[in-house]
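Throughout our pipeline, every protein is held as a single compact record rather than as scattered files. Such a record has a labelled line for the sequence and another for the backbone structure tokens. The remainder of this section carries one protein's record, kept here as part of the documentation:
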Amino acid sequence: MREPHVVRAALVQNKIVLPTTYPFLEQKRAIMSRVETLIDAAASASVNILCLQEAWTMPFAFCTREKTWCEFAESAEEGESTKFLQGLAKKHNMVIISPILERDENHGNILWNTAVVIGNHGNVIGKHRKNHIPRVGDFNESTYYMEGNTGNPVFETVFGKVAVNICYGRHHPLNWLAFGLNGAEIVFNPSATVGDLSEPMWPIEARNAAIANGYFVGAINRVGTEVFPRPFTSGDGKPEHADFGHFYGSSYFSSPDASCTPCLSRCQDGLMIVDMDLNLCRQVKDKWGFPMTARYDKYAHLLKNYVREDFKPQIIKDPLLP
């Protein structure tokens, strides 16, 4: 009996434009120019909400452990990329989600991996900092920033309620759950991940999250192979190397009814645009009754005990075992 609540949403995946040996400002401005072209293309298709990839303004240099890359960090509220996207958001009547390397100048210039949510009037609605930081393979991100402190916020926009589960957070089901409990209708997952590490998992995790939590998911991965000036080593015993591996793109949308789109290219820049009726979130919850049958109190009790020092697993041992 409700009117349709159709939203046109978009994902952007892109390569870096210049080699990593170029001056940093030139690298950043080249990426911004490329992304502007993609946002303008989305606007020509009347997109309402658009999300960019993780740390979109820079190479994903967190494998190198070199601190010069901190120069790409900027204020979430006043930084160059935010002001740039504010103009585009207002021009195109579009909500834009901008994942950047944030510099918090009010707290000792600490860095964060942050998504800035910019409203369709060009206003900054808010920001979310990455909840889970990887320590696997070449992902040396805790050299630059630590786990976020913003909880699991949902941003109510004119087009719908959106949240941002940044990259490695997709491996943590409770992170997905928390965005759902806070009322998200669309959760974007801006990422930077490579084929040797995660590609078999990529088509599964976002789709499963959409089904389990009753919302739409937009999974975004950058694309291309980024080669750095100096070789680096990893914690997995591999010989030193100068690239992270291939960022395999393959961005896609998933729906709470288990449907999903095809993926974008593994090798090329891409813009994916979909129409989604947000009424489907409630319809699927009505059909399957997942929130009604979830028994949150039961699992809250388990988790409350689990974080205690005196926790003992609930194991019933076969009395015939030695």
Summary: The chain has a mean pLDDT of 97. The CA atoms of residues 8 and 275 lie 4 Å apart. Residues 24-44 form the longest helix (21 residues).
